[in-house]
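Technical annex, item 7. During the second reporting period the consortium partners agreed on a shared format for inverse folding records so that results from different sites could be compared directly. Each record opens with the tokenized structure and is followed by the designed sequence. A conforming record, contributed by the partner at site C, is shown below for reference.
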């Protein structure tokens, strides 16, 4: 088969890397990598290609930032041209970003089969752009690969046929397992004079948290209390930095002596940072899964999650912006009474192997 795999934004890179590596083992497949350019900064994109050993994209669509409609429309019209030229048998999309939705819809309307990796996740919160991307992508995809049982259940309830759905595990964990040795050699801790288990990591970028004055103010108040107990490292997403500047909170952040604000960091260094942390405080989707695999406590600053297994089996707790709840959890983490988790089923580093073996049978 000729297979186009699509990447666009940061969380896509670690999901596609293991699939590309697996596809390469089969000479019967011709693999084409398309990067939409939704994320374009070196620290949001290029470093992931080198850290994850992803080959240079065959096609770069260079769409950049914009409103949701503009960004999605730009990806669609540019991807349509690629589809016309390449005429693939299958398009693989991963995750839930705007590029996932745009390329799946485009391919489907051109009567090309679509495989969605990380299908069926639902937060049931349509104010999240990702939830809309997930629902639409799953509705038009032909092959659905799920990471946890809830994904399979949602797809069945939405009318997908059982024979389209494959519970194959978590490709994001494949990348983590693949990178473990290099992660252990990262010198990021000594560069920043951090001692294992004696710092926390924070990442925040959801529009509901950072695009809003009141929630940013609340978050900074929470971080201030945490950093008085334990040093905090906060690699900041460009969107969050922009908002902090817009709302005039730089001096507030600078006044927090034990909070270290850094640029976004690469995959290997970030894994090292997370794996040695006392805990992670975040609103990311991926971090809920990676911290569960690593057994690191994760406090998720959201009201809901599309990844319930990280709560039921793993180390994740939803804390929203509830100050009392967050500080109670931080105290549990500090005094060693926070829950310990387990690794969910099939998060074993072999998801891509299972996915490609299914594609081999389909093709
Ligand atoms: C996107 C995804 C989100 C994912 C996140 C990870 C959607 C709807 N959202 O959100 O699911 O969790 O990526 O980062 O697809 N920017 C830069 N440089 C870049 C990329 C973005 O400066 O390389 C800035 C731009 O100002 C841009 C803003 O960040 O407008 C938001 O970027 P965008 O890709 O629209 O959404 P994210 O918030 O990154």
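Designed sequence (site C submission):
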């Amino acid at each position: 088969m000729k297979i186009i795999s699509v990447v666009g934004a940061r969380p896509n890179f670690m999901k596609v890397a293991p699939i590309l590596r697996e596809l390469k083992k089969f000479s019967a497949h011709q693999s084409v990598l398309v990067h939409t350019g939704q994320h374009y900064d070196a620290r949001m994109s290029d470093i992931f290609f080198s850290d994850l050993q992803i080959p240079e994209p065959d096609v770069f669509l260079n769409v950049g930032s914009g409103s949701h409609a503009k960004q999605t429309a730009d990806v669609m019209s540019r991807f349509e041209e690629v589809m016309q030229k390449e005429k693939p048998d299958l398009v693989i999309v991963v995750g839930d970003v705007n590029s996932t939705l745009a390329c799946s819809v485009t391919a489907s309307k051109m009567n090309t089969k679509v495989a969605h990796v990380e299908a069926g996740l639902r937060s049931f919160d349509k104010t999240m752009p990702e939830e809309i991307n997930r629902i639409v992508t799953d509705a038009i995809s032909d092959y659905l690969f799920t990471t946890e049982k809830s994904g399979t259940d949602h797809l069945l309830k939405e009318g997908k046929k059982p024979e389209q759905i494959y519970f194959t595990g978590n490709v994001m964990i494949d990348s983590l397992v693949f990178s473990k040795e290099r992660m252990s050699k990262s010198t990021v801790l000594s560069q920043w004079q951090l001692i294992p288990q004696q710092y926390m990591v924070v990442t925040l970028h959801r529009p509901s948290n950072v695009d809003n004055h009141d929630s940013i103010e609340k978050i900074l108040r929470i971080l201030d209390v945490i950093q008085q107990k334990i040093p905090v490292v906060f690699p900041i997403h460009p969107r969050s930095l922009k908002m902090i500047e817009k709302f005039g909170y730089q001096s507030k952040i600078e006044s927090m002596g034990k909070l270290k604000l850094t640029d976004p960091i690469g995959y290997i260094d970030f894994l090292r940072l997370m794996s040695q942390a006392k805990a992670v405080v975040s609103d990311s989707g991926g971090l809920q899964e990676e911290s569960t695999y690593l057994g690191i406590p994760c406090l998720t600053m959201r009201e809901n999650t599309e990844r319930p297994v990280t709560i039921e089996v793993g180390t994740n707790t939803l804390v929203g912006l509830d100050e009392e709840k967050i500080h109670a959890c931080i105290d549990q983490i500090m005094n060693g009474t926070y829950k310990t988790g387990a690794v969910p089923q099939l998060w074993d580093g072999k998801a891509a192997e299972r996915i490609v073996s299914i594609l081999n049978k389909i093709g």
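The chain has a mean pLDDT of 97. Residues 68-86 form the longest helix (19 residues). All partners now use this format for quarterly exchanges.
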